Amino acid sequence: MQRANFHHALELASALGMAASSAALTLSLAADAEDTQNYAEAAALFQRMAEHYQQEGRPAGEAAAYHRLGVIAEKQRAFTEAERWYLKSLAISEKQGNDHGAADTYHQLGMIAQKQRDFAEAERWCHKALAISEKQGDEHGAAITYNQLGIIAEEQGDSAGAERWHLKSLAISEKRGDEHDAASNYHELGINAQAQRDFARAERWYLKSLAIKEKQGDELGAANTYNQLGSIAEEQGDFATAERWHLKSLAISEKQGNEYGAATTYHHLGIVAQMRRDLDGAERWYLKSLAIYEKQGDEYGAAGNYHQLGMISEEQGDARRAGELFLKAFGLAAPKNDKNNAGIALGSFARLFQQAPAAARENLRAMGLKALGNKLMEQVEKSASEG
Description:
By secondary structure, the chain is an all-alpha fold. Helices cover 87% and strands 0% of the residues. The longest helix is centred in the last third of the chain and has 29 residues, at 358-386.
């Protein structure tokens, strides 16, 4: 049935008082709108579903609608709104004793906390989900949460812990013959190997993941893995191969209207251009990436771009602009517990300060005092004097 026909049928069912038919059509339209990234329409339809289930006295349906509203908000990186919907869903599930529904929501709350770099909270929610999945013998639910705990460990630099969680998840995925979940496990194991600079092993994991994603027509998943294969080539100085993988990823993201995926790839293409000494080209890619991250309120992504733009300014001999950009990156990363980006940005500012001539140092010192405060700026100056 075409979309317009769905809407017509929904209007007719509502007019005739056909509540069950109206609800089914609304759900179909909502799911279609979400799949096509028409999030405003999807949210309005799922809110309509929640109201319908509330009026009908069907709490399980109401909780499910709130959960979908949380997922839609999360896809748009509106994390505060997503959390609000998830907690509404969770309150109903817990009151009704719906452990399975509660576990799903605990998992999503863990993902939101992880994306906001609150790793302790992320682990707390994930372990609540895992306790239910393991108690109920829900292997699929457990595998998904094992994978998420692996991602949380990765982001805290715990490579051994990450690998343990991912392999636990993978064992279940392979036992169940779940290729989709296995592809996700292979991808994360590749990220973990790459973090340890074992590029050959990382590439093997990524290619195993990619084979499944391409076979299943999972373009979004394939785009993510193309990006990772490109980043391996970047780190090994194979810029032609890196660019080829990143452009494959970008073609999918732009075709699908996936701005977040495109922003990630623009950043990588900026790195490739910068490594080739094409500073103007690199700056254009970083600014395209930055525009999306700032629009989406993603401080993590924005911080990485500000830092790279600072590196370009430094190479062009503009110490003042470089200092401003490094401090901007630090100011975005530090409050979000993004220790990696914060440390890189602060280290770059300290190096810039150390290498700057005396006249430029005074400007940098004033800038640093304002952005960092006395204590951190003292550490920068001490590092410079010892260097």
